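Two quick folds needed for the group meeting slides. Do the first one here.
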Amino acid sequence: MLQTLTNCEEKMKKSVNALTTDYMALRTGRASSALFDKIRVDYYGQETPLNQVASVSVPEARLVVIQPWDKSLLSAIEKAIQKSDLGLNPSNDGKLLRINFPPLTGDRRKELAKQAKTTAEASRVAIRNIRREGMDEIKKLQKNGEISEDEQAQAETDLQKLTDNYIGQINKIADDKEKEILEV
């Protein structure tokens, strides 16, 4: 029974961490090096993460500078950024890439906020699915006589408290991200 609760909590933590990671890659009005975490560059025939072939820095609120360690990768990095769904166009000066982040339009902000809500709802659904699986496992333990009805009731209460806690965390993260996206 205790193992069931521990397993459910681990899965719920992973769901919250996945949401946080997804939100890092969601563009807001500010420049962030985390936006480039999912970009992969063709490096001698291998798809390599951008941060392993270049340094990504944010010297100003609306500017990202990418400096490859191997100058021959400059055009490959530029193409990878242009192909990504970030909608950014880097300027290449032969040594490094500069990416200016234009202010987001009102429509684009609303679209990103909607995308953030959809991602948060998917995380909530994942948490609820974990709870359902945990409840099924607890009922099975009781049915097999491994735990009493009282232990079953306590385990179900504890699992519900866990679920409420993690859904609360998701709601807070989603609200914060929505505020960040909508602020001008």
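Then this one, please, same format:
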Amino acid sequence: MDAGGISSIEQIEKFKSACGGKLDFTIGSALDIFGGDLAYDDVKNYK
């Protein structure tokens, strides 16, 4: 993770595992709709 929050699906998986799914996180500018590399649809469809 960087200071701006999550920037990959792998980081979502690590974060979810570390906190047991009990904390929220931000993604922000890492999303492709804001010019980043992380696909919005991948995050939206992540389970």
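Slide caption for protein two: The chain is about 35% helix and 0% strand.
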